[in-house]
């Protein structure tokens, strides 16, 4: 993948993270490891490798948060079904 494409992908993932934050699907510390990298999609001067690490880290954290949100939702659905709600 070219650097320009990678930066674009990074920007798309950033938008997903903002959406998930607005929905409160992300725990407060979910993106701590990503944020510690200090590489935002706007940091086009950073190396391709820096963006690769940032994209990988962001993808992993978002996937973890989505799995947790799904597990909580599934658990809530099961509880509601068990109680006849």
Automatic annotation (TrEMBL):
Pfam families: UPF0058. InterPro entries: UPF0058, UPF0058_sf. Residues 66-85 are annotated as: Disordered. PANTHER family: UPF0058 PROTEIN MJ1205 (PTHR42203:SF2). This is UPF0058 family protein.
């Amino acid at each position: 993948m070219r650097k320009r494409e990678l930066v674009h992908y990074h920007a798309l993932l950033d938008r997903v993270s903002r959406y998930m934050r607005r929905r409160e699907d992300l725990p407060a510390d979910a993106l701590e490891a990503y944020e510690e990298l200090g590489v935002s999609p706007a940091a086009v001067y950073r190396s391709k490798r820096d963006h690769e690490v940032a994209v990988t880290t962001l993808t992993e954290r978002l996937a973890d948060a989505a799995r947790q949100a799904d597990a909580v939702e599934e658990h809530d659905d099961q509880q509601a079904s068990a109680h006849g709600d």
